[in-house]
Amino acid sequence: MKRECLTIIGTAHVSADSIDEVKDAIYEQHPEVVAIELDRGRYIKLKNQMMGIEEDDTISVTQIIKENKVGLFFTTTLLGYFQSKIGEDVDVKPGSEMIGAIEAAEDLQIPIALIDRNIGTTLQRALNKMGFIEKLKFLVELILAVLGYGDEEEVDIEELKNPDNLDDLMEMFKDEAPSVYEVLVHERDAYLAGRILQIPQDHVIAVVGAGHKPGIEGYLDNPETLPPLHELEKIEDKKGIPWLKIFLALIPILFVVIFFLAYFNGINITWNIYDFIVISMLMGFIGSILSGSKIQSAIVGGLVAPLTIIHPLLAAGWFSGLTEAKFRKVRQSDINNLAKIESFRDLWDNNIFRILLVVIGTNLGVTLATLVILPSKVFIPLFMKIFGG
Fold this sequence. Notes:
- The protein has about 400 residues and is mainly alpha-helical.
- The protein has helices at about 15-30, 40-50, 60-65, 70-90, 95-105, 120-130, 130-145, 165-175, 180-195, 215-220, 245-265, 270-290, 295-310, 315-325, 330-335, 345-350, 350-385, and strands at about 5-10, 35, 60, 110-115, 205-210, 330.
- Helices cover about 65% and strands about 5% of the residues.
């Protein structure tokens, strides 16, 4: 690829003007290659959409939980929600400018180069770099956005492509979520630039999001600063001490220690164990049923609650949520419909929200039992008996 023969088109992903700009450039320049900011998975999805092929849109919540991809799933859902919402507002489907590039390239029989990193890799790297506070802020922003809180100012999509406005937007994003910024913006700038440099043909048109254009150009002007692409594709486990998990693990350990101390001191703990089981099951059941679950889900949440309190790596909400997922099939349309939510009624009718609500409700019930009811009703009285209080 010759730098002087490269044209980078920075687009807004939900902009009608961007579609025309992309198509006009391809037809006028007739490049040797059209490079687009897509990975293979998203490319195939857009191609199926173009050909009218309906994909099986059933989402396996069970598989998501088993593969420990819950955080990744909801991050993807959040990004999809925001892009779909903007697309609804301006009456343009997300990815339309990429479809325009594909259509023009195929019409002129020009090869297409897929230059983006796998979306799963990108999001997993972002989650791995986020600290607990960043993740908490992320969750709060998600809830507020879905419920319609936040900045209500109308956004001019074309204005977002202005370099001055982009600089301000990127700086704000960098301040609010530095880890996410590093992975979603800075890393992908490097990855996209590296992939463009790998294209053997000379005359190339690259279609990328406007926010990436300045970073890509910076790397292309200084290719010696590019990191190895294989380093940007690695998914590494987070390093450091998981203090939150340690703290959560100490609570059930403390409960078990108190039971054993009471037993070895000759205190009859039979009724205390009964109280522990009954209170745990009852709070798991109540938390689930109050969140709107099926009776079967509430029963499952209640039955596993005593075990999940003792085992810090298990959560009763996941069991009740998995049971609820058996009755509420989650489809891609549930994700797409998040953009159309305008009231709590709309939320209530969305299967993703309902399953998530059951998970949260069950866990809240069990958490209340663990932190408040069980200590006051079971463990503090036992502790007092052990030490003669």
